[in-house]
Amino acid sequence: MNPDAHASAVATETAAFVALVKGADLSTPVPSCPGWTLADLTRHVGSVHRWFTALMRQRVQQPPASRDVDLRLPERPEDYPDWLAGSAAEAADVFAATDLDAPMWAWGVDQHARFWVRRMLCETLVHRADAERALGLTPHIDRELAVDGIDEFLTNLPFATPFAPRTAELRAPDRTIRFSCTDGDGDGSGEGDGGGDWLILLRPDGFGLVAGDAEPRTADATVQGTAADLLLLLYGRLDRESDAFRLRGDRDLLAHWFANSAF
């Protein structure tokens, strides 16, 4: 997906989120976000939109010293859905006025404005699924969005230590974990899928994606599932031991990964 597609998907995902919560009881608990209600979830998503939009509007070149931003949060929770819609509209205006390929500080790999559009999309998409599950619905996540979200998560996770400190524990003596989609163009083996296969290498000094895996190798541990399920698994929304996944290889290595990769 390109930055324009990410921007369009932010609008689509936010509209879906707003439609979900607008007529719902906002005091409904969100099990995948312990301690939160739908009101808290809506406030969080809108706050993320406004924070990222402020960063893009300023084209920050250094890590910001403060996260203070005027959220213009309504006093009544029942007004949060419309406020979130307004947050997305402001974001869309900034996207349209910004060169998304312009250099800009970001906490992840891609030091360009487009990083924040993609990150906003992932936040909105996963939390839309949270809202659906809280309301007893089964989330549907488009495969292209899910694949892009998995790639975004795994690409940037090595840089998330400042706010996800346990990722610093993701070390091992050159051990590999493969995440592989079963709903792509390949056979679900984790090889040759062309857009649904990721190999992570855990080294003594860190971890990261193995780029250009031209000669696929057997990983020490493998997790297979649909793209949508893998995305929710990586974000801690599904249990790897459920029937949605096929696990192979070193279970202790997988336990180490999931114990320390919480975002």
Short description:
The chain is of the alpha+beta class and 263 residues long. The protein folds into two domains: 138 residues, Up-down Bundle (Four Helix Bundle (Hemerythrin (Met), subunit A)), CATH 1.20.120; 104 residues, SCP2 sterol-binding domain (Nonspecific Lipid-transfer Protein, Chain A, 2-Layer Sandwich). It has a five-stranded mixed beta sheet with strand order 3-2-1-4-5.
Kindly describe this structure.
- With 263 residues, this protein is α+β, with helices and mostly antiparallel strands.
- It has two domains: 3-140, Four Helix Bundle (Hemerythrin (Met), subunit A) (Up-down Bundle), CATH 1.20.120; 157-260, SCP2 sterol-binding domain (Nonspecific Lipid-transfer Protein, Chain A, 2-Layer Sandwich), CATH 3.30.1050.
- Helices cover 43% and strands 10% of the residues.
- It contains seven helices and five strands; from the N terminus they run H-H-H-H-H-E-E-E-E-H-E-H.
- It has helices at 3-22, 38-58, 80-97, 114-134, 143-156, 227-234, 251-260, and strands at residues 175-181, 197-203, 206-209, 221-225, 246-249.
- A five-stranded mixed β-sheet has the order 3-2-1-4-5.
- The chain is globular and about 50 Å long.
- The two termini are 22 Å apart.
Strand order of the largest sheet: 3-2-1-4-5
Globally, the shape reads globular
N- to C-terminal distance: 22 Å
Mean pLDDT: 93
Total tally of structural domains: 2
Helix and strand string, N-terminal first? HHHHHEEEEHEH
Give the number of helices: 7
Counting DSSP E segments of at least 2 residues, the number of strands comes to 5
- Tell me what the CATH architecture of the largest domain is: Up-down Bundle
**What is the name of the CATH class of the largest domain?**
Mainly Alpha
Percent of residues in helices comes to 40-55%
Report the sheet-strand fraction. Answer: 5-15%
Largest sheet: 5 strands, mixed
Broad structural category = alpha+beta
Q: From the alpha-carbon coordinates, what is the Rg to the nearest angstrom?
A: 19 Å
Instruction: Indicate the CATH topology of the largest domain.
Output: Four Helix Bundle (Hemerythrin (Met), subunit A)
Unreliable runs: 186-194
